[in-house]
Amino acid sequence: MSRKPHRNSRGLFLGAVLGAVVGYFAGRAVGNPAWGIILGTLAGAALLYRVNPGPRNRGPGKRR
C-alpha cells in the first residue's frame, strides 16, 4: 500500500506570510527590505510546508 504525499497548503501559506514579515524586518536592518521579503517568503514557506499543523476537522468521528 503506497501512501500519498502530504500536501500542507496551510503551512505553505502561513510560512510565506510569516517569512515575509520577518524577512522585511531582517532585510530592513541589513539595508534592503525587498530582498528580505523575497528570501523570507521562500524560507518560511519551505520550513512550514514540512511542519504538519494537523487536520482541519478534529471533531469526533473524523479519524484517519
UniProtKB/TrEMBL annotation:
InterPro entries: Gly_zipper_2TM_dom (IPR008816). Residues 14-47 form the Glycine zipper 2TM domain. Pfam families: Rick_17kDa_Anti. Keywords: Membrane, Transmembrane, Transmembrane helix. The chain crosses the membrane at residues 12-27, 33-52. This is F0F1-type ATP synthase assembly protein I. It comes from Pseudarthrobacter enclensis.
